[in-house]
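User: Predict the complex.
Assistant: Input components as received:
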Amino acid sequence: MLNDKYSQKIVDIIKNYTRKHSLWVVAYGTGCGAIELPPTMTSRYDAERFGIRGSATPRQADVLLITGYLSTKTLKRVIRTYEQMQAPKYVIGFGSCAINGGMYWDSYNTIKSLDQYLPVDVFISGCMPRPETVISGFIKLQEMITDGKANGAEKYKENLDWYRTNQKQVIKNWKMPDYNW
Amino acid sequence: MEINWIKIIGLIITPIIAFFTGTLYGGSARNITARIQNRYGPPIWQNLFDIMKLYSKSSTIHHGVMQHLGAVWAITASTTTLLFIPILRDSELFVNLSFDGDLIFLLYIMVFGSLGMALGAGQTGNPNSAIGVSRGLTQLVGYKVPFIMALVALMIQFKTTNLNDLLAVQDSFLNWNIFQSPFAFLAAILAFLGMMGYKPFDIVFAPAEIASGPPSEFGGKYLGMMQTSRSIFTFAKLVLFTDLFLGGAENFFILIIKTYLLYMIPLLIGIVNPRFRTEQSVRFFWKWPTAFGIIAILIVAY
Amino acid sequence: MNKELTNENKLIEDIKKTFPSSEVSIQREKRVIVKIKQDTVPPLLSYVKDYLDFNHLSHISCVDWIEQKKFELVFILWSYDQQIQIIAKTLINRDEPKFTTINKLWRQAETYEREIHEMYGVEFVGNDRMGDFLLEDWEDIPPMRRDFNTIQFVKENFNDRSAAREDSKNVRETIAKHSGEEIPEFAKKYSTRNIDE
């Protein structure tokens, strides 16, 4: 009785409803866009109405915000943080530096397109996006969760070889633990 | 052998009621915090969504057997504490287990949950967890001293160690234990501030200071169990205080009013205060609350 | 300039008397430029620090003069009492760049010298912490030198989406075509930009 299609659909609806109404964000500011996060979380543009809360460690969090550019040194640490989170997990890319390199398009030290190193669900454009844009990016993520399309973690699991080739091309000294399922 | 079906049904329903009430109280605490900070907060059932989301994580990462047992011990401790406290005064369904000497039993079963979490955190090997555990246990020593003194004063005054007898003594409004033993009430209510875990005594679970302390390596289902245990434990502590000092309750309506008003005391103090360091909080607990406790024991013993 | 630059003139006299081979000049109010040879840098800096009260080192910087085959080290000092900034410049050899450290006068010089070593390749004798600083596992020539081709490096090592970037298209003409306007005469010479130069 519990394994037919209709009860599976009801369970999915309940699961997606609870997942989208309580998103916990890793408290890690990877770039200069992290300066837009305190106004979003405090009194004026209150993000706690939607259930978005900061979380202290990656083991307890759902969402990783890549706020801005990533140098190759930071990319290694961000990959390690991403692999410590527990599925289902989502990645949001902030700013134009995550989309195509942005202001640092000709720099020898930053990566140019985040999509090839980590699976990204939502891109938010701007340099830096204002708090209203940040909240509308989260609402877009909520809509994707309702439709069942926010599956970056499964994409990463299936195409791990492709992601690893891209990452090892940029990071020369690869001494990291294996992906912990 | 007679099976008392009513009592068994009461024992099963009580944790469920405690869980839902505890999450609603937590959600309303977040709402009140938000209104004081001039913004709207999350809806009242937000804590329930958090716990359900944590239970629906599809992968769990653990570091060993002791981490499983740590979370299980936490829930066992809080549920056991709950089952030895009479929820309503004279109802057949909700007066749970009791025996002579259950006050002393409650004193040490309440510490069992922290022990479980400390063992689970020790297995993970994270230095943040180790620092958080040592701070938590130091603070526990701090607030247990006035609490034990208040309970000992009550036990000497009424010559009983059974919680049901203490309930039977408070039969009218002027016979509440606030008026019969005021110094014990003062000592216990100041110790209650430390037990609730709000500021200024929340250095154990501080997110920005030591990356949330003991539960820093717990994620997914383990964290869901810790949050569940915390909600049940909140309700248990509030009902214990109502039974000890405010005369218990005859039906759920009065119980909710009394526990909510009691919950407001640590919450409203906690919103507007910063945090103490560990040695400052221990020094606070060993000055005035302990003095009130000693006065209470001396008044009663002579 | 109507103001009397008495402090700056007195400073110039002091420095010129002690170090006759230096060239001093006043750029404007509160800015004095001193150009010296390589071996008089530590004596000048300690004289200026101890005797004339310039006790704050703001920055050490480096300029790459590739046509003359020299690096130029720039030391910027500030005095709280006189509120004057001294900019001291030296030229060192570009093929084998070596210099002594001024770690003993100001301890913060260690950080600036580490950065110059990583970005330009200048070796500071006496500084113990040369090594990895900002770049991790860098195997090329020091990247701030002018003969390091950044754009070619980026094209080889990173897969970028520059075919879709606006800079590789002609922005002014695109906008003019969209809104149906004419580009004015004075802006026409900036319209085409070659990103490979």
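The domain at 17-170 of chain A is CATH 3.40.50.12280 (Rossmann fold).
Let me know if you want any component modeled separately.
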